[in-house]
Every structure is written in C-alpha cells, then in structure tokens.
Write a structure and sequence with these properties.
mainly alpha, 3-stranded mixed sheet, 11 helices, 75% helix, 2% strand, globular
C-alpha cells in the first residue's frame, strides 16, 4: 500500500523502547519527573527575569527566550512519549507526527542560533565592557532574537516539508520515540539522496556554523580574561560565561552526535538515548546551571521568595 502526505491516511507506530517493557516503566517515572522539573525551572527563570528589574539586561533577555524555547520544545515531544511509555498503544496520528516534526525542528534550530547569539552577548560583555550598554541596545537584542526564531521557522518549513512529501509505501514503524527528520527519511521507499544532502547542509548551517561562531567568541573571551591581572577579575569574567559555555557543551555535544555522525556508525539504541538526553535532560539542566552558578539569579529568587514569605506573615 502506498501512502505519503495525506492527513487522512493512517499514522505512525513509534517503536521507542517497546522492546524493553521493564525499561519503559522506569523511563516513564524518570521522564515525568524531569519534565515537571523542566516546567518548574524554566518557568521560574522567565518569571524571575520579568519581575526583577536588575535582570532586565540583554543576558537575561536571551536567557528568557532560551527557557521559553525549552518549555515549548519539551512539550512538543514528552507528553506523547509519556503516553506511549505508559500504555500498549505506541501510535501517533499522521497530523500529530507532522505537528511534532515541524514544531520540534523549528525550536531545536532556533536554539542553535540563539546559543550563538548569547555567545556574542558574552563576548561584548567581557571584551568590550565599556561599550556593552551601547552595543547591546534593546533594538539589537530584539533583532537578534527575531533572527533566531525566523531562521528556525525557515528551516523547518523546508526540511519538514521535504520529508513529509516522501512516499512511505506503507511503512509505519518509526524506530524512535518521536517524529524526527533522520528517522522518517529512513522510512521512504524512494531514493533519498537529495533529502540526505539537504539534511547535511542544514546540519552544517545550524550546528557547525553557530558552533564555530561560539568557539571564535570564546577564543577572544579567553584572551581577554588572561589579560586581566587580578585573580578576582578573572574569576568574575569567567563566571559570566561559564554557565553559557556549559549549556553549549551539553547541547551541541548530543545534537552533533545525532545529526552529523554517520548513521551506520551508531546503534539504534545509541540514537534513541542520545535523543532522549537532548530532548529531556538538557532542557531540565539549563535552568539549574544558570541558577546554581549565577549569583544574580539566586539573589533575585531569594528576594522574590522573601517578599512572598513576608506578605504571608503579615
């Protein structure tokens, strides 16, 4: 039976971890906990950045966008994953798969660009501190954030549309836990050389290029930090960048493994667990990294919680 891009046609079977029933029960509990932590942590970052006037700076403006991205990204994948882990039904409707593909790819691509934008912000803060307020003015910050969002939308309109136009010829079993471009391309019953080439080009544009810009930024930042004579000054300068650098390392490390490593060189389980890490674990870690390693955010949280405690007392 041939079927392709018609929303009235049957959906897909997300195989996921169904070959390991005992693991599914464990994953359900762990993923549910991490998802709730993701919702709590990222929502807290957004609210704190809005409420505390001291955090109305470019750094926290971009951090709020990152937290909003993580909230939307995980919510486009995890609820369906939890449903499939909990019951025997592993299916997802055709429309649900299309929505998941378009939304998750747009948000993931946006995050790649946004992290590069955040590295530029850190570069200006450390290497051009006297010009920071002038250089990172609100209009530029808004333009950079808009560029990140629009680039994500543009790439998903191209990649997802090309992927869903492929004929799947009755192949419904997706050996993954969500609809992602690389695994859907494997279901096609035609030559996918063009799609593979397009995927590679998109991966270079949204992974290699932003990561290169980040590395260049941190190269200049490292030089600037080493020129600081006082140990306290170096520690302060490094502290403004360490959280972002840690987030970049975790995020890009897992994404590059999934999208740039040849599919034949990794096992199916490796791909699933790597995807699980950047769709579930990384969005939960981001707010923890920024709150636990950032004195300004911790001070803002204490201030807000302290005010609430006092208001309840009186």
């Amino acid at each position: 039976m041939w079927w392709g891009n018609d929303s009235d046609l049957p959906g897909f079977i997300l195989v996921g971890f169904s070959d390991r029933p005992q693991l599914e029960l464990i994953l359900f509990g762990v993923i549910l906990f991490l998802y709730l932590m993701t919702l709590l942590g990222n929502t807290t970052i957004i609210l704190v950045s809005l409420v505390d006037s001291k955090l109305h700076t470019p750094m926290y403006f971009f951090l709020s966008h990152l937290s909003f991205l993580d909230l939307c990204f995980t919510s486009s994948i995890i609820p369906q994953l939890l449903v499939n882990l909990r019951g025997s039904d592993k299916s997802i409707t055709y429309g649900g798969c299309v929505v998941q593909l378009y939304v998750s790819l747009a948000l993931g691509s946006t995050e790649c660009v946004l992290l590069a934008v955040m590295s530029y912000d850190r570069y200006v803060a450390v290497c051009r501190p006297l010009h920071y307020a002038f250089a990172m003015h609100p209009q530029l910050c808004m333009m950079l954030a808009s560029m990140a969002w629009l680039s994500g939308v543009a790439t998903t309109l191209v990649q997802s549309t090309l992927t869903m136009q492929l004929p799947f010829c009755g192949h419904r079993r997706v050996d993954h836990f969500f609809c992602e471009v690389p695994v859907l391309i494997k279901l096609a019953c035609v030559d996918t050389t063009f799609n593979q080439a397009e995927l590679f080009v998109a991966s270079v544009l949204f992974l290699v290029l932003p990561l290169s810009l980040i590395l260049v930024s941190y190269g200049y930042i490292t030089q600037a930090v080493l020129r600081i004579k006082s140990a306290t000054g170096r520690q302060k300068a490094f502290g403004t960048c360490s959280s972002h650098l840690l987030v970049v390392t975790i995020f890009y490390g897992t994404i590059i493994f999934m999208y740039l490593q040849p599919a034949k060189s990794r096992s199916k389980d490796q791909g699933k667990f790597v995807s699980l890490f950047y769709t579930v674990v990384t969005p939960m870690l981001n707010p923890l990294i920024y709150t636990l390693r950032n004195k300004e955010v911790k001070a803002a949280l204490k201030k807000i919680l302290g005010n609430k405690t006092l208001s309840r007392t009186f």
